[in-house]
Amino acid sequence: EEDVAGEAAETVSVKKEEKEIDWEAYLESCYERPLGGTNFAEESEESSLEATLTRTITLTEHLMWQMHLSPFTLEETLAGEFIIGNIDEDGYLRVGENNRDEKLYLKSVTDEIVKATGAVKEVVESALKKIQQFDPAGVGSRTLKECLLIQAEFLECNNHVIKEIINNHLNNLEKKNYKAIAVALKIPIDKVVEALKVIMGLSPRPGSAYGQSETNIIIPDIYIQKTGGDYVVLLNENGLPRLKISSYYKELIRNNGRGADATKAYIQERLRSAKWLIQSIHQRQRTIYKVAQSIIKFQRDFLDNGVCCLKPLILRDVAADIGMHESTVSRVTTNKYAHTPHGIFELKYFFSAGIERDDGTGMAFTSIMEKLKNICEMEDASRPLSDQKITDLLKKSGINIARRTVTKYREAMDILPANGRKRLF
Known about the structure:
Blueprint: H1 2-15, H2 23-32, H3 40-43, H4 59-68, H5 74-85, H6 102-117, H7 121-131, H8 144-154, H9 160-168, H10 170-174, H11 178-185, H12 189-199, E1 222-227, E2 230-235, H13 247-254, H14 261-298, H15 300-305, H16 315-322, H17 326-333, E3 337-340, E4 343-346, E5 354-356, E6 362-364, H18 365-378, H19 387-396, H20 403-412, H21 418-421
Parallel strand pairs: 1-3
Antiparallel strand pairs: 1-2, 3-4, 5-6
């Protein structure tokens, strides 16, 4: 019966010249690629304009191109290809055994290349030296020190203080212990600051500008716009297929005298599946709309004033508000994005635990972290605030959290402690 139905379906498709939707194929693709607003380029054959841009050249390709235009001997080219092939995305040559002794490590790198390529030591060293003169400056370095020194030479910088700091005082530089550098070099602090201005302009990751990952284009699923004094939700349905049931197949079922019973049963089953699919998509859109309206209700202060006013909100609150189960709310907010007056946010962003302030209002942990970040950005860089002082400032705003909590939030946002944020210029 399945063979008969298949042959009949093929006959119908041949007779019908107008283009119809292949529901079975669409259903299969629907299960493999759920609808969403994450990466439009992945979910549609018609990619957005940004997704059609040419890919960026990789660091390896850039270095190979330079080598083939440079005066390399055949032996140097073979060694150079191995060297370039082992330069990581940051621009560093990664071969040999890790060793705390810098001289031993540099030697192990050369020995490893000699062993792998069969080239003599002099050829390897010559090829590496030439590659280290390529763009970007500092590429092919084996250590941070070597990377910075190469860049300093590239700038034709003859300041011995700069080279001395790079060679012997990177630890103090990392800790921003500028006084220790001045004492060790027996020079005024302003000379150290002058040298630091140059060093801070060097790149510790010279290869990072090449081969960046492709831009991930986010298409919002909803738009939240202010109209008059209220916020309205607009569904973005541009990415959804325009679905309808083919009138041809409806007519085919009505004509009982045509076609075998198996064919009729097959078409009826496909039509039921098609109707179910269309209804499911519409229901999902209605659910997203209801969730978005509920979020507006709970997060009005955020929409009016920004991230600093995000309120504590959990899935249960929205689920109770719209009369649905928490799992449903969780499902429709996953990988769904909203365009708001303050930028594009994933719907899950609006759900966060929080604390109660002194005035009785709630404040989300996300807002507390944002406020902490703003405090650090607005502080006097020459006299950065300690975690305890930040804690005291938050308490003045009615936010009572422990100093260790401030430390935890600061570290979570990759903000350095006070001594690491201090600047002299």
